[in-house]
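Project standup — Tuesday

K.O.: blocked on the structure for the chain from last sprint. Re-posting the sequence here as requested.
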Amino acid sequence: MATDAQRLALKTYAQGVRDSRRAHAAISEPGLAPHFQRLVTDLMPTLLAAPLTVVPEFRNPQVGRPDIALTRPGEFARAFIELKSTDKPTDGRAWRDAHDARQFSRFSELAHWAICNFHEFRLYERKEAVNHAPVVPEAALDPAKSDAAADRLLEAHDPDAFLRLLERLAQAQPPAAGNAEQLAQLLAHSARLVRGIVKDRLAELTEQKSQDTPLQQVRKEFRDVLYSHPEAAGYSNPDFDELFSAAFAQTLAFGLLLVREATGQPVDHHAADHMPDEHPLMKTALQVLSMEPVAREIGAGFDVMLDTVNGFSREILAVRLDGRDPILYFYEDFLETFDPDARERFGVYYTPVEVVRYMVGALDRALRESLGTAGLADEHVHILDPATGTGTFLLGIADRLRREVASREGPGQTPPAIRGLARRMYGFELLVGPYSVAHYRLHHALSRNAEGAPEVRDLPRLGVYLTDTLARPDSAAPLGPLGFVSAGIRDERLESNRIKTEQPILAIIGNPPYRRLEVGENESLVGQWLDELWDDLKKPVRDAGQGNQLNTFPELSVAFWRWAIWKLFEAGNAPQRGVVAFITNRKFLTGWPYAGLRKMMRERFDRIEIVDLRGDVRRGERAGVGADQGVFNI
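H.V.: unblocked you, prediction finished:
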């Protein structure tokens, strides 16, 4: 039963709305919003014992902010109310206006929120409506209704259902993740919110013909410096805002998570200041994304993400008693909610852990048996994944080395072994989203130790670089509008170019992206340097009279094969021997377009192993040319 104080608050609210509508016939929701703010402010002490602040976000209109936020002292806002005009329904699925529809899609990522059109209140948990109830009779807000008649309507009205919904919203707590999979899903929802806010805000700025806001400067930096060509992610140039928005959200999410993981402390808007030194470009990227003017434009999205990253117990990410790492599938769980169609656009697919472990084991065996090294533990063996994605193969290598050293020498010897591995293990990644995830996953994996030993400290700069593997090895980093970002990517490019041209690599492993190239994509995705380099793969096909088959030759994974062979045998300081362990397209075993590649492999490698995952296994096939001491694994 509503109290007298609650009924008085509702009566005052209705009176204020009527008066405003009488004074301004065309008044819209921003003009009426202060009345609803006052109503919620007046009602809160009657609903909750703990203090709660009603924040009028409508005074600071940005695309990322619902009109009202409910906050407790020292906490981020966890409950929100979006206000709509009196003639619009509170069922967001019924909104037809494009702007409203985008808002509903965006705010549906919030765990607790509501829509109110001043006379009806509908509570949501993400996109699911919990219940709805009238705030006051709609006629009580009619400016044509006399005050006495409106008061009679209010006296006959039972507001209890509305008050219960408002109380439930005000008591909202952050979703609690009980395991790594739930955390990945919650993080994905907050990232989806940020992605939608960024994309819609950029659209608004374009409509307003703005050109130089802080958010647009960051976008330009990503476009000109961090992405050499968006086509590699399955986006055309006109779709760059979609790519940028997704990269922004993922980099922010996993950057914040990395800082929380590294420090063990809650993160805030200054998280970049606490990024470990082994992630220099991640530190720079996080600084850019959390600049105050940028964070202000993202609005509630930033706070929701901070709350998500702070709202879980770090123990849920600890390795389980059965030895399983809970973040092994973390990015796949994240992507399933954040963007389930991403793998189709990227042309890449998740590599099952069992396949990774087998390939890492085969790589270790080949290094020992065929190249006379101590395998992955050998301090002279440098390892590269040229299409590392989120770092799955590098994680597999680290896991195998940790288990091997712990078993042979004891857990106390794993920290120096892991630090040594980190200095000679590299990954190249073109897309800043997966790059950010790789840095987080590797930090998580390399920092932890075998059971019974302390965490690994003082890691070197992790060797995952944001670079285009297939670009000219002497390519320079472009300059962007934010000089400190350009400096960071320039350092990144110089070091990755050094690895390409000078660092002897003995082991190359990974799952290169498979993608048939359309006309014109040779230049945009492969580049002129490699397009000329892989021309020698076409000659054997022409010489065999099958040149007409080469119209299907251009395929992205073939470019990575040719690059790997160049790196082992033709680049500066090439060791003239080595192991390549790649997952590849099965058609390359028989198709004419791949005949030149097969011929080059027979000429360059002493031993070829092929594992056909459809059941046919062939091992130890002698290449018949023993010119170079090399092994080729599939």
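K.O.: great, moving the ticket to review. The radius of gyration is 29 Å. Residues 180-510 form one domain.
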